[in-house]
Amino acid sequence: MKFQSSLKSISALAVVVAISGCVTVPVNEDPIASLKEKADWKMPDGCYPVTSPFKSWYGPGGGKRHIPHKGMDITAPEHTAVLAAHGGQVLFAGEDGLDGHTVRTYAGKDITGNHIYASYVHMDSTLVKTGDYITRGQKVGGVSSTGAWGGRVNHLHMQVQANNHGEHRFGKGGYISERTAKLVNPQSYWYHKESSEYQVVKHDEGINFNDQPGVFRGFSYPVDCKK
Ligand SMILES: [Zn+2]
User: Fold this and answer.
1) 103: helix, coil or strand?
2) What is the pLDDT of residue 14?
3) Which domains, ranges and CATH numbers included, belong to the chain?
4) Which of these, 18, 49, 93, 147, could form a disulfide with 126 (CB 3.0-4.6 Å)?
5) How far is CA 100 from the centre of its chain?
């Protein structure tokens, strides 16, 4: 009973937090993710859709997965620009086995002190280098289906991880293992304007994101939208 009531308090807190727009969710719990998944996200006009959300058992082509999805998939025509959804530093850029052409980034600390990492996977190429600093909206590659896990459907796989100690390394492979940085739902971190709840924002709307080095302020849409 005690456990249940504390769970209730957590979800009540999550509602308050979501409404106020301040994310104070401890890493590894992600209570607002399910709330936001159900919410009616307003997508910017002309943007390609999320075809396989976090934890989905189905791929972007409809096939059944063996394990729940570790990120989210956005299906778009081959070579559509993949745009950094945040500023930060490139931890790895290049071919990474089953992931194909991949860029892995460190986005900085969010307002709760969690360190956020993002990967852009199955791209046609990588336009940045390991160690580069990138800005929000910068083109890092193009949509494709490279790597054995890319399947036959052109899509961006965006994977997000978080930890509270900042441990990470540069280079190929397990730059941050799932042991040291928990998988989180990328859609938990959609950037939205304070005046408009659950507004997904594309990078080119002339919005001032107030980006600062090392500070994570949420993700803008990572695939270029049709004009
Ligand atoms: Zn995926």
Assistant:
1) strand
2) 38
3) 2-189 (2.70.70.10)
4) 93
5) 18
Distance 80 CA to ligand 1 centre (A): 16
Token pair 């790895």 is found at: 92
- The span from the CA of 50 to the CA of 24, in Å, is 25
What letters, b where the CB count within 10 A reaches 16 and e where it falls short, cover 86-102?
Answer: bbbbbbbbeebeebbbb
Ligand 1 centroid from CA 1, angstroms: 38
The 3-state DSSP class for residue 105 equals: strand
Q: How far is the CA of 204 from the centre of ligand 1 (A)?
A: 25
Spacing, Cα 169 to ligand 1 middle (Å): 23
pTM of the predicted model, to two decimals?
Answer: 0.82
pLDDT digit string, tens, across residues 127-153: 999 999 999 999 999 999 999 887 889
